[in-house]
Amino acid sequence: MKILHPSLTLGKCVEYNPTPSLTLLARGSAPLPKSMTIHPAHIPRWFLLLTALVTGAVVMALEILGSRLLAPVFGSSLFVWGALIGVILAAMSSGYAFGGWISDRYTGSGVLAALLLFSGSWTFLVAWANQPILFEIEKMVQDPRWGPCLAATALLAPPAFGLSGVLPAMLRLAVADMEHIGRQTGRMIALSTIGSLAGTWGTAFFLLSWLGSQSLMAWLGGIQVGLGVLWFMKGTSARPLVSLMALGCFALLGTMALNPIQRLKTPIYQEESPYQQVRIREDNLFRYLVLDRTFHATMWKVDPTTLFLPYSQMMVSSLALVSEPKRGLILGHGGGSIAKWLARHWPDLEMDIVEFDPVVVRMAEEYFEYRPPANHHIFVKDGRAFLNATNHTYDVMWIDAFARDMIPFHLTTTEFYSLVRRHLNPEGIVAVNLASSGKEGDLARAAAVVQTMRQAFPVLTTFGVEGPWKTGMTPAKNLIFFGGHAIEHESENGVVAKITDMAMNQRLPMETIALLSTRRTEPWPPGVVLSDDFAPYDLLLGRERSQLVE
After folding, report:
1. Are 225 and 314 in the same domain?
2. Confidence of residue 291 (pLDDT cuts 50, 70, 90)
3. Which of 449, 365, 447 minimizes the C-alpha distance to 401?
4. What CATH number is attached to the domain comprising 177?
5. In whole angstroms, what is the distance from residue 76 CA to residue 391 CA?
6. Residues 78 and 143 in one domain
7. Among 88, 197, 295, 546, which is least packed by CB within 10 angstroms?
């Protein structure tokens, strides 16, 4: 016997033969609640395809956005990205399985609505309370691998699970049109993949810079809830009071998402760059540049050109070890502290300044009063890529691209330091800053950097310079490494005498003389030699973390 079955997918009636397979599906189905009764209404094909496109875009946008949510607390190491990708994939896999199972038990668009409303509501909650959740997880789990995994699970696994369950639920609706099941399945999967591509590129290239991470998270929650409400209205008959109460709850969640709980003090300016969160903070005396979770520059507002931080005072002392330097290079601009000081005290020194983040370059000029003179050349480029492309050689090179666990590994390898040596003049000097607590994993990290640098610079001098403030790390230090001709051929007393003499002549900060006592005298322990092929840098990170002011 042949009967007519209303197609929810195509909005038309098709012949239905109760074959054994479909009979079993129907037999295993449970009746829907009255509030979730399926309408035999028309559901246009374009609406199904639009849903596939949007859900694919949102799930990938959440993954990209997750890196920005975790960065202020956990950094942006390889472990963070590994945690994000792994957790999202696990959530998607389980979501696909659950979506297939639930759509067989409760056929119809009510399943789609429930999944979308669940994922959207959770996204709203993440937008509202992500900071306190992340800080609490960081306190509980200090391991640099499992802390980010737990954080990604708590914040992003539920919405990724719900969004992934939508696709098999839509494919279940397409079973009603057996004649075109292959075509419909292919279109949905293709549209979902195209949406994932759009969500990845759109979020990374445009949306984060336009909206910021908090606002974008709230918008993604709103998109999911809105789409869920449309499916609820199209496929179910709910009582008006129930619908009104549900809309009120979602409106409340949306309002909360737009007014998130803040654990970090509100900065005077904040911007999402293509690479990191950039924040400007200040107090009565100082202004600070914060990139993700680490302070990168401090400016004394009374005299903006003063080198306030001891590590930068030590870095510029390398000028004393070169006879009449003509050209210098800075890799890692930050707030422009060294560049400002050089422009004032060494105005004839030709400078190439390389910074990979254009927003940081702009912050140095707008908030830290760096006004590059004609002989300062700013390059917005990766440091290693710059060295590969330039033909210039330098008398002094300052490498200040390191910040705790956010060190680009390709700036720590033997290949990189060989490149540095080739661009250093025979009588030149290189100064490298490595932030470190000087304990446990950080000591292993420093030993690895030392062993690697020695492949190109056999003799190194190390200074362990403490910061001007007490922090949660004890002892917190910047390790400054000097390498080059003067270090290899001058005696220790000769190096000290040159730096002292130049400081007494007011060509270096006077504080430099006292900092000479921080020279490390004990030998470094054996360390791993890092290369482009083998650089397990993230495994060498210590447990202690830099502290953001809450």
Report:
1. no
2. confident
3. 449
4. 1.20.1250
5. 32
6. yes
7. 197
Distant-in-sequence, close-in-space partners of 472: CB < 8 Å, separation ≥ 6:
544, 545, 546, 547
Domain assignment of residue 550, yes or no: no
**Is residue 206 one of the residues assigned to a domain?**
yes
Task: Verify that 375 and 231 share a domain, yes or no.
Answer: no
Does residue 292 form part of some domain? Answer: no
- The residue behind tokens 């719900």 is 162
CA distances to 161, 260, 265, 508, 546 from 131, rounded to whole Å, are: 22, 8, 12, 42, 16
Q: What is the mean pLDDT of residues 215-228?
A: 92
Gap between the Cα atoms of 291 and 293, Å rounded: 6
DSSP 118-155: HHHHHHHHHHHHHHHHHHHHHHH---TTHHHHHHHHHH
What backbone phi and psi angles, to 5 degrees, belong to 378? -95, 130
**What pLDDT score does 180 carry?**
67
Query: Other C-beta atoms within 10 Å of 275: how many?
Result: 14
CB-based contact 517:465 (threshold 8 Å): no
- Least confident segment among 72-81, 269-278, 481-490: 72-81
Q: Are residues 318 and 238 in the same domain?
A: no
Residue 35 to residue 469: CA distance in whole angstroms: 62
**One domain, residues 248 and 319:** no
Beta carbons of 428 and 438 less than 8 angstroms apart: no
| Number of CB atoms found within 10 A of residue 41's CB | 13
How many angstroms separate the CA atoms of 82 and 90, rounded? Answer: 12
Which of 361, 369, 285, 288 lies closest to 330, judged by CA?
361
Q: Give the chain's domain count.
A: 2
Residue 505 lies in a domain: yes
Q: Under 8 Å CB-to-CB from 324, ≥6 apart: which residues?
A: none
